[in-house]
Amino acid sequence: MSFAKSIDRVFGENWPEFDSTNKPWTRWWWFGSAVDRDNIKGLLTIYSDCGIGGVEITPIYGLVGNEEKELSYLSHDWVELLKFTIDEAHRIGLQVDMPTGTGWPFGGPQVAEDDALDKLVITRFNVASPDQISLDDIKGKLLEMTAYGVDGVVMRLDPADLVTGIVQSSIRTERNWEVYAASLVWGGRDVKRAAPGGEGKCINPFSRVSLNRYLYRFDEALRGVEKGSLRCHFHDSFEYLADFSEGFFTEFQIRRGYDLAEHLDVLGSDLLDVDRTIRVKTDYRQTIADLLLENFTQAWTDWAHKQGSMSRNQAHGSPGNLLDLYATQDIPETEIFGGVGNPIVNKFASSAAHLAGRSLCSSETCTWLGEHFNVTLAQCKDAIDGLFLSGINHVFYHGTPYSPLTDRWPGRLFYASTTFAPQDPLWRDLPILNAYIARVQSSLQAGVPDNDVLLYWPLSDLWMHRAEIYMLEINGNWLEGQPFNTISQTLWDSGYQFDFVSDRQLMAFAKDGTPKDYKAVVIPPCKFMPVETMEALNQIAESGVPVLYVDEFPSDVPGFANIEFRRQKLVELVGPIMRSTAATSSGDLLETIDECGARPERVTGTEGIHTIRRRFDGGCDRFVANRGLSSYDGWYPLPGKSTSVLLLDPMSGDVGKAECRSNKGVFEVRLQLEAGRSLIIRTLEVGFLDSAAPWRYVDAKLEIFAPILTWFVDFTDGGPYFPESCSVEQLISWTELRVPGADEFCGTVRYTASFDLPSTDTDRWLLDLGKVADSARVWLNGSPVAELIAGPFQVVVDHLRKQGNLIEVEVTNVAANRIRAMDLRGETWRVFREINFVNIQYQPFDASGWPIRKAGLLGPVTLTRVQSS
Length: 869
Fold this sequence. Notes:
Blueprint: E1 25-31, H1 37-50, E2 54-60, H2 76-91, E3 95-99, H3 113-116, E4 117-126, E5 141-148, E6 154-157, H4 161-164, H5 166-170, E7 178-186, H6 208-221, E8 232-235, H7 248-256, H8 264-268, H9 274-306, E9 310-313, H10 322-327, E10 331-337, H11 343-356, E11 362-367, H12 377-389, E12 394-401, H13 430-444, E13 448-449, E14 453-456, H14 459-464, H15 483-493, E15 498-501, H16 503-512, E16 520-523, H17 531-542, E17 547-549, H18 563-580, H19 589-595, E18 609-616, E19 619-626, E20 632-637, E21 644-648, E22 655-657, E23 660-663, E24 666-673, E25 678-684, E26 698-705, E27 711-719, E28 726-728, E29 746-755, E30 764-768, E31 771-773, E32 775-780, E33 783-788, E34 794-798, E35 805-812, H20 816-825, E36 856-859, E37 862-868
Parallel strand pairs: 1-2, 1-12, 2-3, 3-8, 8-9, 9-10, 10-11, 11-12, 14-15, 14-16, 16-17
Antiparallel strand pairs: 4-7, 5-6, 5-7, 13-18, 18-19, 19-25, 20-24, 21-22, 21-25, 23-24, 26-37, 27-28, 27-29, 29-35, 30-34, 30-37, 31-36, 32-33, 32-35
Helix pairs in contact: 1-2, 6-9, 12-13, 16-17, 17-18
């Protein structure tokens, strides 16, 4: 049997014919680059048939015993296979991205020692006698030296004089000098998970020279690759250990206006005046952010454009301004790691995309969503819904190992779950999730964002309250305790559509055109603000866009140089505002935003329902997901002007005209949304949908029946072998059947039964499968009626017979029980050369101690008579 609905079918006039960008993509791990044309061609076809829209080729470490088949990265043979992959992908409608390197971060054999120097070392000498300063005590490449006397005297020293003894003779010991030496060393980071031919030191991401020398190898190797045939070059999250670069002191002097070398004591000691320490370190951080933006992120994007490709970059993990870094990219990319993700962190990428006018914002998706062989499609859908609600509209699975189908099960595996591969049993139902993603993304990639509020991210204020130098990682720990985070959560929980904005972006708005599409700019409580930002905010307010200061006005400037002058300037800018209006209190913020014309998407009666809007000519799409525990059945208010509303179910593909009403002047749509479900609400400002069929609501649930007495159970697809068929009077996990081998089987099992209906005059029934482990497809009387990958495992069905109904349910489970059995027998399947193989705690993987996981149709299966409109 096969289902008629496929990923490329147009479901009525309101679902488009999906292109490759609408569909989910996947990171394609090439183990040791041991790939060949036949498998490339065959696997790409399988991926395409499953509903994948494109692949990102990422070469990594190889397999034990497979060395003879490996190819050296960027060798002639490797590039020829890259060209073949691109041509074959394009032939079947897929596209290809590629990181500018193997593993991560950028680095390789072409990175010379000088280009890898990236870590600042401060060496302190308490000088009691001249001979205490020695070159042997200084690590790396000496850059600057400064001496500090007890009476406040600061003396710059020429490192070259250290050799001649001039330094010692110039320091009078009775002053009790402290001498600080700044040197540059290699931070110790090699390319992680490198493929053969890609091993080596990482580049210095703050050095344009280091980047240019690194990219020269790609210029040479990719000359024969047609420009533009690679859609994107990709850079993974910032995992360098770098915090400095040669030439930094000069850059600092130019950008910040004073000599950092005179403040080496700030960088090398905690026993200092706190205000000076934090101010100098804030300037240091701002300079690092500038260099990362200009010398790496923008420069690498410019290089990608010269190749005819776009750039895709994960800015998180870096010490820079995430909003500015993301905004330089053609496709900003966030990720979720170890769970369903933090929507506030994910919104940094989507906000940058929105403000920069980018049509796509991507995410590395489902990394370590759960333990290997245990992640379900339901977990994936929930995590992906969270990304959609955060503004992400271009999903990348993480990922799919290149694994020939002839390889022994489980095939090649990346060490970090989640695996999306043909060898995995859930691949059979992955097209259901892929179709769902394509439908949602076809909506979220259309039109433009429809957000009302700009929330300022006061990064300088964050820097000025933290003495340590730290990275802005994907876990969002740096948000803890920040008023910005509190307001973000309040806006999120209250249903407001909002974006974040940086200092640089505000200045650009003020210069090139104010943010007229936003109803208000919100400034969270912050003490420190650059003068230039305050000037931009005043210009925006003068243009007519309300600027709301929450609880307080900025009262100080960040950084060290010209403090008093800049403070006075800030006072002059803030003073008139303080005299003309009061700061908005946190408690009144939402009411004030409402008065500015913002349109929150609020649903009363249940928690966990969130919405994101996209606007198009003549209407608006809302993606609405219920990620709570309770179902919702009520009237959903629709701010704005509408004449008619469509409901579109991205899981089933169903489309129908919604029931609407006007309630005390508020336009409302009737919405039924079970926990775990999502819909697209399409509002049209003009015209009527006379040709659209009405959406079918369930008005009442009446009697419940459990009419099935006997189920026939057949093991149809999977392994390691097929247990015998059997029948059961009561549904239980198939692992509990008294059938040899059932406790380790992973794959698909068909449940078949016949049933009669009680005497009734209804023709609509709610079929509820109860508990399912882990996904299901359902046929009634030979016709497919449902593809279900997440709860509730229910579907409304029509036209059942009074007698002799046939139900068939095919259930597919995850592979946990099979891998458990293999580890219990001590079978060898871990054949990976570098990291071989870890669990979610990054400890050696061993499934032998796992409990047997329930599998199959667990029920109870019931039919409920329903009334509907």
